[in-house]
Design goal:
The chain is α/β, with parallel strands linked by helices. The protein has 2 domains: 221 residues, P-loop containing nucleotide triphosphate hydrolases (Rossmann fold, 3-Layer(aba) Sandwich); 176 residues, Rossmann fold (3-Layer(aba) Sandwich). 37% of the residues lie in helices and 15% in strands. The chain contains 15 helices and 15 strands. The strands form 3 sheets. The protein has a 7-stranded parallel beta sheet, sandwiched between helices. Strands 8-13-12-9-11-10 form a 6-stranded parallel beta sheet, sandwiched between helices. Strands 14-15 form a two-stranded antiparallel sheet. Strand 14 and strand 15 form a beta hairpin. Helix 2 runs parallel beside helix 3, helix 6 crosses helix 8 and helix 9 packs parallel to helix 15. The longest helix has 17 residues.
């Protein structure tokens, strides 16, 4: 099947050709016709399989072929919510790329940057708004955005938004939208919590799932390298140098750990930079640009970068620290092996992380291969220690991690129960709803 068979306009087909694409991915083949029909959609697909184009292309088609109810004001007609700044910027760039032959205007708003330029752009009028929940509510409070004319709502990486505690913000935003609208929910992982959330939000949705739940892309080779905790940095430097890696994305558990590792790599003669939530948006943007341009070889990141980083043909992802939540492993390694390219994902695992590794393998439903690098064999006399989580917290047991899978599921169950109980006035349906308590202090 080609894009010509999906019912997209000639302008969009030109833009797709300009990007060098000829055949849609599986999620695009299934999602685009459903969205063009105007139906609600719950879509699950592996990260890196083209979900963004799967909703931006039909969204642009619908808006360009459907007259605005208020053309003189150019109100926001489509709202796309994402959990992180990087993902918001990536999605808006896709809107620009695919909509360049159309008269539609777009904007992106997120925290960490000055709000006034965003206000000026919104006042000039935009058709498509990409936003993180916190900054969007900032604009709502300042009355610089009107959401009463939204025709299509997209929740991208919805599971991540639930994990990050945006449920109250999302409730407030949904209460500002018109009741009659099309809802599209996209997610890389497809948990039962997401299904319950979708049940409260979507109206008789079509459901597509192009891969088994929570599975990484098949083109990503995965391996575990056992190593002592105090020799991880040494092993990482050895791997980068001996194999002449020119581009590697390395994940750490904490912000402090990311900064420390980046400085240590620099001392080893490996150009590096760190990216995490405490960095200003300008610093994050510069670090990412330098990494993409090849000015630095290693980008050290916390899980703030696990979603939304789209790096063309990224060859290597390294889990310097295993994530506390198994699903985050899938999102991390999904930064490589994208768009049909092969990639390598390596995890440096010390004795403290054996339970985390078991949790990940349980999620994947298979064991990962273990290869010990000669000269870096673990010392059998070293005993496991509690994992330092940052902020003085430690993880010492299977389900004691803050925000971990079991605790997160319990919280999500309560949230979704509240959504169902409030569908007639206080839930997600779009009718009049209770505003709830003040929105989250998170500002991605």
């Amino acid at each position: 099947m080609s894009f010509n068979e999906l019912g997209l306009s000639a302008e969009l087909l030109r833009a797709v050709a300009d990007q060098g694409y000829s055949e849609p991915t599986p999620v695009q083949r299934q999602a685009i016709p459903v969205i063009l029909e105007g139906r609600d959609l719950l879509a699950g697909a592996q990260t890196g399989t083209g979900k963004t184009a799967g909703f931006t292309l039909p969204l642009l088609h619908l808006l360009s072929n459907r007259p605005s109810l208020s053309p003189e004001r150019r109100p926001v007609r489509a709202l796309i919510l994402t959990p992180t700044r990087e993902l918001a910027a990536q999605v808006e760039q896709s809107v620009i790329d695919y909509g360049k032959h159309l008269p539609l205007k777009s904007a992106v708003v997120f925290g960490g940057v000055k709000i006034n330029p965003q206000i000026h752009k919104l006042r000039r009028g935009v058709d498509i708004l990409v936003a993180t929940p916190g900054r969007l509510l900032d604009h709502v409070s300042q009355r610089t955005v009107d959401l009463t004319k939204v025709e299509v709502l997209v929740l991208d990486e919805a599971d991540r938004m639930l994990d990050m505690g945006f449920i109250r913000d999302i409730r407030k935003i949904l209460a500002l939208l018109p009741r009659q609208r099309q809802n599209l929910l996209f997610s890389a992982t497809y948990s039962e919590e997401i299904r319950k959330f979708a049940d409260a939000l979507l109206d008789s949705p079509a459901q597509i799932e192009v891969a088994r739940r929570n599975t990484p892309a098949e083109l990503v080779s995965q391996v575990v390298h056992p190593v002592d905790r105090e020799r991880k940095r040494e092993l990482l430097s050895f791997m980068v140098g001996s194999q002449n890696w020119q581009q590697a994305l390395v994940f750490t558990r904490t912000k402090h750990g990311a900064n420390r590792l980046s400085k240590q790599l620099e001392l080893d003669g490996i150009s590096s930079s760190a990216i995490h939530g405490n960095k200003s948006q300008g610093a994050r943007t510069r670090a990412l640009a330098e990494f993409k341009n090849g000015d630095i070889r290693v980008l050290v990141a916390t899980d703030v970068a696990a979603r939304g980083l789209d790096i063309d043909q990224l060859p290597h992802v390294v889990n310097y620290d295993l994530p506390n939540v198994p699903e985050d492993y899938v999102h991390r390694i999904g930064r490589t092996g994208r768009a049909g390219n092969e990639g390598q994902a390596m995890s440096l695992v010390c004795i403290d992380e054996h339970q985390l590794l078991k949790d990940i393998e349980g999620l994947l439903k298979r064991s990962l291969p273990k290869i010990t690098i000669p000269g870096y064999e673990p010392d059998p006399s070293i005993r496991a220690e509690p994992i330092k989580m940052g902020g003085g917290k430690q993880r010492s047991g299977r389900n004691s991690r803050p925000g971990g899978r079991r605790n997160g599921q319990n919280q999500a169950r309560k949230q979704n129960a509240g959504a169902k109980n409030g569908r007639n006035g206080g839930g997600f349906g779009g009718q009049r709803r209770r505003q709830g308590s003040s929105h989250s202090s998170r500002r991605p």
